Amino acid sequence: MGPHANVALEVSDSAAITGWAFNASTSTPQPGAEVRLEPGGLATTTDANGAYSFTGLTPGTYVLTATFDAGCEIAARTEVTVTTLAQADLFLQPATDSFGYGCQVFDQPFTPTTGPALPLTGNNNVTRVTLPFAFSFYGQTYTRAWVGTNGMLAFDKRGSSRPNNAISIPNAAAPNAVVAPFWDDLVVDGSASVHTATDGSAPFRQYVVEWRNVHRAGNAAERITAQVTLDETGFIFFNYSDLSTSSDPERGSEATIGIESPGGMVGLQYSFRNPVLADGKAVAFIPPISSNPI
């Protein structure tokens, strides 16, 4: 949650609370944020200018919370004491997991990798890859990983071919130490492939894995292309292509998207069975500064 503030205005009688929500990262008004008021269970959504209001309240002390984004949520919390009228502005900060990873969504055109295809085909299969650099992930350093047909890369082989993503992130059940741009029951058939490539120069190299034109098991018409990029600095990027706007499963309604620590006790989930993915939208997972080698 965001910073905590106390606001008090001494007037009397009828009570109302108004204000604006701002994205703390950009210092701009945040339209479309959900603002909730407790006690009372009232909720509203900020308008195009980021404004909100609650009227007809009983004078007293209230807690305001604001959240925005279906995936990389930003949030704020403020306590307000009001007798007649109070203004309370909310500054929404990015959410993080308990290790310190955060995430952000931004516009980025999809660029197909030109790297070679892995010897990975069929359903529920996995192959080991050697990373071109040591990659830091939740405090551990890895030089190899397992890439599965089911839209995930894992630093622990156990469960890395698992098709059943009925559990959300984080969860102690295998697979753990996972980077999952599109964990679903996927098939790499004759019209699909999985590619890898290494781009850039040390210490800013990037390792890219691309699931190209893979289809969801049981429906060869539902095809997606997804990428994960491991950056040598510790950042992780997801990007997508060929997602049909008319197909919820292609946009993630049956998929798990996120990252999870070794042991599965910590993780940052962007989406769990929620159709929020879109072409040209990238999801960045940002490591805590203390774990960033640069």
Mean pLDDT across the residues is: 92
Instruction: Give start-end ranges of low-pLDDT stretches.
Output: 1-12
Secondary-structure element sequence? Answer: EEEEEEEEEEEEEEEEEEEEEEEE
Biggest sheet features: 10 strands, mixed
Report the span from N to C terminus: 27 Å
Helix content: under 10%
Rg on CA atoms, Å:
22 Å
Write down the overall geometry.
elongated
Proportion in β-strands? over 45%
Number of domains: 2
Could you tell me the number of beta strands?
A: 24
Individual helix count:
0
**Structural classification:** mainly beta
Descriptive overview:
This protein has 294 residues and is mostly beta strands. It has 2 domains: 6-94, Carboxypeptidase-like, regulatory domain (Immunoglobulin-like, Sandwich); 102-291, no CATH class. 0% of the residues lie in helices and 51% in strands. The protein is built from no helices and 24 strands. The chain has strands at 6-9, 15-23, 28-29, 34-38, 42-45, 51-57, 60-68, 74-82, 85-87, 90-94, 102-107, 122-123, 126-137, 140-148, 153-154, 178-183, 186-188, 193-199, 206-216, 219-231, 236-241, 256-260, 267-272, 281-286. The strands form 3 sheets. Strands 1, 2, 3, 4, 5, 6, 7, 8, 9 and 10 form a 10-stranded mixed beta sheet that branches. Strands 11, 12, 17, 18, 19, 20, 21 and 24 form an 8-stranded antiparallel beta sheet that branches. Strands 13-14-15-16-22-23 form a 6-stranded antiparallel beta sheet, with no helix packed on it. A hairpin with a 2-residue loop joins strand 19 (206-216) and strand 20.
